[in-house]
């Protein structure tokens, strides 16, 4: 694959978004363009994985400007794997949004495509300032998507979300300014290793990393996530859960690996923060009583696991972290979509107003149960391999305490998943609870059924986690190669600055 | 030194406004914070060279660094777009721009459409 194709990963979704802004009707071509562009992006990601097999790196300087002053795009194995999974999630969540009716809303499709363009750009750029720009490109449509679909609650959540993200972006930009002030460059290739040599650079880059940690919702700066995600529409929550925090996590991995070269001086901070994140996230979920607020707190907990990979560093730690990241994106979206299907059909996500869904919707229940077990780390799903590799890495690095925390938190995760299972899928159907208006068959079955188009997206993603769990070796090899690219950054640097 | 003091003053004012309750004040706070960071970016390029950075016209030793200026230009455009959107969010919904209680208050008339 030639490097000149890389900017297309940003340009094509942007162009498609522009077309959809003008051509809103009829619905069929609009949906074809929305799903088709996501599918193209998925195909592009697969091609990039093939091209970066065994350490291959594809790079391009936009406008053929010389190295160092151009806008660089670089695709390696880590970025390619992320593009595959983020595109898959955009595709599946868009399909869910079409089934749920969200996509009928004006500008929904173009906003999703701009979001996808920003994500692709952030994953491919090798420049801190362009990273800022692409994260903004990703966030601006999100502000709209969050606020426009759920009435006044969406607006209130939107106010909080915009304020939080703008503050973080401002800190990020200040960090970029400081980095430029002390080094004279914001190109990742030229910054390589500088933070490990100079404490001044390390401080400046730390400002950038702190801003990224807020966007990734690491404890103690996690409060915004649990207060905003549950108030978007189900499709949008699933989309955000797979893309936003995960792009920030990707950037933390990339920046720490390249600019700090994995300097072990600061890793203890990460190990402590991630241990606390795991525990606080899972405990926060205990007091919640709606499906999505429970899942949102679990996301915070799982972010601790993912970033533990970079805090452990080393080949096994990074492999485990990357594997966990990819697995988690799929599983979390699956959980949001299966509970979202219930919410769209029955109009509520409160545990005390739901029940007995498994009786009428065995497929949806299976999709939820599979993803929930995967999240908790049960075989044969991908979560088992992810947790096992991570705990092994923690033992290898001598971080026994955090390994014990990781295992203990898994049990609490399972407990919370069982709480959703018991509240929504198991037990008696909701007629036994006061204040609902669902029609029922005389023998107890619900007459309101979840449409197959709403079940399918979650089922597909649960199928992916099962497939990855059974054939884990395949993804582990890819994750190992991605980790190797982060451990030895010489190939990446050469691709960025050409020497 | 002037730059450092300006950045400090803008950040102080910005932070004061951002921690207020009303959305309009928060928006103004972000305008101030945005200016502070823009000045920080410009000072990152060094304030000692002031000439217009035109390749053939200006000697490189006195020309200002154009890259931070390009950064600031991009940042201003993004900040402007978000400011407009934040003011929109302050204006829609009920006749308030309150951020207190936030979305977590579910007992109120949530069904009211924006």
UniProtKB/TrEMBL annotation, chain A:
Sequence ranges assigned to domain NADH:quinone oxidoreductase/Mrp antiporter transmembrane in this UniProt record: 127-413
Pfam families per UniProt: Proton_antipo_M
InterPro entries with a match to the protein in the record: CPA3_Na-H_Antiporter_D, NADH_UbQ_OxRdtase, ND/Mrp_TM
Keyword list, A-Z: Cell membrane, Membrane, Transmembrane, Transmembrane helix
Membrane topology field: Multi-pass membrane protein
Transmembrane segments: 6-23, 32-53, 73-100, 107-125, 131-149, 161-180, 200-219, 231-253, 265-286, 363-388, 400-421, 454-478
Record flagged with keyword Thylakoid: no
Domain of life: Bacteria
Primary site of residence: membrane
Localization, UniProt: Cell membrane; Membrane
Membership in a protein family: Belongs to the CPA3 antiporters (TC 2.A.63) subunit D family.
This protein's name: Multicomponent Na+:H+ antiporter subunit D
Organism: Actinoalloteichus caeruleus DSM 43889
From TrEMBL, chain B:
Highest taxon of source: Bacteria
Compartments, record wording: Cell membrane
Principal cellular location given in the protein's record: membrane
Pfam families xref list: Oxidored_q2
Membrane topology: Multi-pass membrane protein
Transmembrane segments: 27-49, 70-92
Gene3D superfamilies, per the entry: 1.10.287.3510
Region Disordered: start-end pairs: 93-114
Keywords: Cell membrane, Membrane, Transmembrane, Transmembrane helix
Family: Belongs to the CPA3 antiporters (TC 2.A.63) subunit C family.
Protein name: Multicomponent Na+:H+ antiporter subunit C
